[in-house]
Amino acid sequence: MKLDEEIYRMISQRVKYRKKAKKMQNIDILLSDSNVVSNIVNNKRYKKNPYLLTPTYAFEIVKNLRFTDSYTLIWGNKIERESYFGMLFFEGMNYLLKKETELIEKSLSYYVPYAYNLAIREWKNKYGDGISLLFPNLKIDKDNENSLLAMQLLYNHYKEEFFERHANYFSDLYTTKLDKKITNFFETELLDMISNGILFNRGKEFFDLILQNLSLTAEMTIDSLPGDDSKFHPQLDFSKSVDTFIKSMIHYQEQLEGEIVLTDSLNSWTVDLMNIK
Hints:
The chain is mostly helical. It has helices spanning 3-21, 26-29, 35-41, 55-64, 70-75, 78-99, 101-108, 112-127, 145-170, 178-195, 198-224, 234-257. α6 packs across α9 (145-170) and α9 packs across α10.
């Protein structure tokens, strides 16, 4: 998804909706260049105005259509932002996951099933697939569900700060080179919030703890293999204990956080939300 294209679409719909509601003509909205209004409400960008709004156009539209400010014109009111800022957060996290992979993986590890999955991958890379026989119930998340749920959990915790950082960053910015501004917001504000947030160290601790236990089980298994004719295999009992311990971590988080439901990854914005106060 091209986020800037989605923002342009919403801007055009807001102007069109407000223009119709107030029964205003183009010249009532932009006295300086009334023809531009038709392009804006139809989301048409061209060489003269490639970013849909100039600061001057935005100022006149805000004044004449009585938007609160340019930030509300571009990004919507609080209710509107509630409907799609989750999607914005997810897009930012996926972007950073490719650019700052290790750091974002550790932040997502606050969600214990994600930390478990990440530790299993590293564990199997070191010891090979055969070592997974120690944990017959082992399941690797192959459909990215744990990653999405981990992002949802972080959004649940950081939502208020994310809104605040976004407003502070974009309050005086317009739509010129909007795609680059959004990317820069991800690389600065979102990255700083995630990597320095209170949950980052805890996520890293979850990952390290799980990996240490898995690795210890593997080392105990390897140590017991050469010339061992005994039927006593303490490492198998230990692997069961580790498995129980990890499941107890997952259960503890479920009790602490409640059920993590994927609710904010998609854009549910509609122009009618402009009327909700």
